[in-house]
Design a protein that fits this description.
The complex is a heterodimer. Chain A contains 13 helices and 11 strands. By secondary structure, chain A is an alpha+beta fold. Chain B has 11 helices and 8 strands. Classes of the chains: A alpha+beta, B alpha+beta. At the A-B interface, strand 6, strand 7 and helix 13 of A face strand 4 of B.
């Protein structure tokens, strides 16, 4: 799944040539900001830009600042991806080749036209066309004078940004794999304690052990995609199973929780607890062979909390223990860990990163306030209106901000 | 001209700013064959965009009669009063009560500035500025790539709870703004009552108000959370005249004339004399919201004669029982014993039309609601009663006290709502909701 982003390398391979080969077009000055600017999209003066093998961005004859729509016409016989980039900034290191991207349109079919809307500011622009069967071409550099602000450019993230040089423990992927491996090792130990407590007939110890082990697993939120079927076995819910909580296919933490908190006899809980311990061991054994999907790092950074909002804060995943707020806290910790390993890449790209940290911290403090000194948790449904609203507000605001992380890493989804 | 006809005329004219209208007419006139084309095919051409950091503002226009569904012309946002108060009710509305989760006065100001910015953009329309590759799309896309105003009005108000210790506003609470109490026939659910802020979004179609709600909520997640919400609609005239409520009766026939500035000053707007020592509130209006369930199954099992005696009007025509037409004025003096219009009829108790009761008239704005079924399988539908006034005690509460134990209460019960102060209007692009309240 993960392969080096050839396009990124090609960008720079042709970038060096672009400055020489391409005619530089200088725009006339933009309209005064006070005057209404008729957008290309609605004035009938849309800019049609041609994309084909070897031709990229032909047709941008009258550059100007302001909101406008380029109609990207793909005349080639392959699928095209088109980026509007700043060709004069960014690294030329072939291992981390990238330039600031203002807009991107993917999957433009042969012979079709797709719109690209962008607020063009003053500065240097070029189209970067990645055409199937052909490769990447950088169009003419367009320079627009003045001081108008436009859509901000963001450096796309490359495979090499994430993976670093082989064996580099500081690269985000390596750091995250180490975090996951450590968590799964703990999981094996803690599910063994849980199973032993159940077998010993000490169900109140088992309830404490269940929470400890479950939170360890929930802190690994980013790894779900990697765990594949193991995740369903270890942390699957009863939804979608015929018979619900009575289904023989209902296994894992929630099955054990249901038994422990619904007065089921030891014998009825022992099987599921053993199965959980077994699945954790299997996961641990499989870990070296599971592939970390790099695009997951960005995507999961917001999806963990989306799931927490949907299943934990609502109380949906409460199978009796009333600890969905504890799960939420674990999910926040998992999110924060991801941000930590991605921080070096985000700090230059994500303009709302400081606010993201602020709101995650506020959310974590609000959620942790539901933990009692004796280790018990207030069930989500028993929060008073005001505390409920404070938590929902912080979760919602954090999610709005985290959405940027996934978008910034989205280029990696195409690998 | 009857009161209601005047009100309607005002509603039509109320949203029209002559300068803007002629500007738009001129825009559309060039190259387009009349207003109908402008509405149907010239949506993009009808928008003039103003390049500014806060988004691109535009406006579509055509003669109201030629309006295509979902494309009503914009209602100017800036003004001394909020624009959604005087016009007659629009087809669709959402009433949302929020609790403020912002911490401290600074964050409250930020919240109100954001709310103002979104309201300004949504009521004006235009192209949401693209976010580039560092954020998801800036707009839900529900209204298409160009946000159409569709007559959207945003009416924002504050509840008494905003003036507690959280924001240091206790000394700024006008004496006339209190929490809604319990009336004898109420069955109030606290979760559906009150709120720090109220926002009413009204427009020509459902997608327009829902788009606005999503946009506002998205931009204010950390600052406020929905406490309760209800969606409403106004039925088309059946067959003509004032729209009917879900009891089958015309609702809101009698209203003070919104064209009369003097009457609006007496009955609707908070004037310096009515501001209770809080000059910031001048230009605002007290808003009462009452969510009223109608037991429509029970009602449908009642004879039309009894229904008409409970209301005081003919169901078919809307005429008072002593009159011939919807706009006939009931003559209670000629019927002191209630032989024609019972003394306990709803319209007679609500508005006895005496010299004394004149000052208790309200600007009534009712919407129907419909939201599923109750525990016994009966339909949960009824009325979102809203009214604007200069003084809640003198007006709404006086009316409500006259209505206590009216026979109609067997068929209806209020379950939610609240008292609010609809803020003074946002006067220009640098102003924001509640600026004077926070100053």
């Amino acid at each position: 799944v993960a392969a080096p982003r050839a396009a990124a390398r090609r960008i720079l391979a042709s970038l060096s040539g672009a400055a020489v080969l391409a005619a530089t077009v200088t725009a006339c000055s933009s309209a005064p900001s006070a005057a209404p600017v008729a957008p290309a999209a609605s004035s009938g003066g849309q800019t049609v830009v041609t994309i084909s093998g070897g031709v990229c961005g032909r047709g941008w004859a009258h550059p100007h600042t302001g909101l406008q729509t380029f109609q990207l016409h793909n005349t080639s016989s392959g699928v095209a991806e088109v980026y509007l980039i700043n060709p004069l900034e960014g690294s030329i290191d072939p291992d981390s080749a990238s330039a600031p991207v203002f807009a991107e349109v993917e999957d433009i079919g042969p012979g079709t036209t797709a719109p690209m809307q962008v607020n063009v500011g003053s500065g240097a622009y070029a189209f970067d066309c990645d055409v199937q069967h052909y490769g990447t071409t950088i169009g003419p550099i367009v320079r627009i004078p003045g001081a108008a602000h436009g859509t901000p450019g963001v450096l796309s993230v490359t495979f090499n940004d994430l993976i670093g040089s082989p064996g580099n423990p500081l690269a985000p992927a390596s750091q995250y794999l180490a975090y996951v491996a450590s968590g799964v090792t703990q999981l094996v130990r803690q599910t063994a304690v849980l199973a032993a407590d159940v077998h010993a007939g000490d169900l109140s110890a088992a309830r404490r052990a269940w929470l400890t082990a479950h939170l360890t697993y929930e802190r690994l939120g980013a790894a779900y995609g990697t765990f594949g079927h193991f995740d369903t076995e270890i942390d699957g819910r009863a939804d979608g199973l015929a018979g619900g909580v009575r289904s023989p296919h209902f296994t894992g933490f929630y099955r054990v929780e249901y038994g422990l908190w619904h007065g089921q006899p030891q014998a009825a809980v022992a099987g599921p607890a053993d199965q959980l311990r077994h699945d954790a061991v299997e996961l641990h054994a499989a870990l070296p062979h599971l592939q970390l999907i790099l695009s997951d790092l960005g995507l999961r950074t917001h999806e963990i909390l989306e799931n927490a909002l949907q299943f934990q804060l609502t109380g949906h995943d409460d199978y009796g223990s009333g600890t969905t707020l504890a799960t939420t806290a674990a999910n926040i910790a998992g999110t924060v860990e991801l941000l930590k390993v991605l921080h070096p890449l985000l700090v230059t790209r994500d303009r709302v990163l400081p606010q993201t940290y602020f709101w995650l911290d506020r959310l974590q403090r609000l959620v942790m306030a539901a933990r009692h000194p004796n280790g018990a948790w207030t069930p989500a449904g028993q929060l008073g209106t005001s505390r409920r609203e404070q938590i929902d507000a912080a979760a919602g605001q954090a999610l709005e901000l985290l959405a940027s992380v996934a978008t910034i890493f989205e280029a990696e989804k195409q690998l | 001209v009857s009161a209601e006809q005047e009100s309607r005329a005002a509603g039509t004219a109320g949203g029209t700013e002559p300068g803007r209208r002629s500007f738009l007419r001129g825009t559309l006139g060039a190259g387009l064959a009349g207003a109908a084309v402008g509405a149907a095919g010239g949506i993009a051409a009808g928008y003039r965009l103003h390049g500014s950091g806060s988004g691109t503002a535009g406006a579509g226009a055509a003669a109201p009669g030629a309006m295509q569904e979902g494309r009503l012309r914009p209602v100017p946002f800036h003004g001394r009063h909020q624009a959604g108060i005087l016009p007659r009710p629009q087809k669709q509305t959402v009433v949302v009560s929020f609790d403020v989760t912002a911490q401290g006065r600074g964050q409250l100001e930020e919240l109100l500035r954001t709310l103002t910015g979104r309201a300004r953009f949504l009521t004006t329309g235009g192209v949401p500025p693209p976010a580039g590759i560092s954020a998801p799309p800036p707009d839900s896309g529900v209204l298409g790539p160009v946000v159409v105003p569709d007559g959207l009005t945003v009416t924002a108000g504050v509840g008494a709870s905003l003036f507690d210790e959280r924001f240091g506003l206790a000394a700024r609470r006008p004496a006339g703004l209190a929490a809604m109490g319990v009336f004898p026939n109420d069955q109030l659910d606290p979760a559906q009552c009150g709120g720090d802020l109220i926002v009413q979004l009204s427009a020509g179609s459902t997608d327009t108000v829902l788009h606005a709600l999503r946009d506002i909520a998205r931009h204010t997640r950390g600052g406020m959370q929905v406490r309760w919400r209800i969606d409403g609609f106004v039925s088309p005239p059946r067959p003509a005249g004032t729209p009917r409520n879900l009891m089958g009766f015309m609702d809101g026939i009698a209203n003070p004339p919104t064209t009369s500035a003097a009457q609006m000053d007496d009955l609707v707007w908070i004037t310096p004399a009515m501001s209770g020592g809080q000059p910031w509130a001048v230009g605002g209006s007290y808003l009462v919201v009452r969510l009223i369930r109608m037991l429509v199954e029970f009602w449908d099992r009642v004879s039309v004669t009894e229904q008409e005696n409970l209301i005081g009007r003919r169901r078919a025509s809307g005429a008072p029982l002593d009159g011939d037409s919807e706009f006939s004025v009931p003559d209670y003096a000629a019927d002191p014993q209630g032989l024609v219009i019972p003394l306990t009829a709803h319209i007679r108790l609500a508005n006895p039309r005496t010299r004394k009761s004149a000052s208790s008239r309200i600007l009534r704005r009712a919407y129907n609601y419909d939201r599923g079924v109750d525990a016994v399988g009966d339909l949960d539908m009824g009325l979102i009663f809203t009214c604007f006034q200069a003084d809640i005690a003198r007006q709404f509460e006086a009316v409500q006290k006259r209505l206590v134990d009216e026979p109609l209460t067997d068929y209806i019960f209020p379950f939610g709502g609240g008292y609010f102060l609809a803020l003074p209007g946002v006067t220009d692009s640098s102003d924001y909701y509640g600026r004077a309240m926070l100053a």
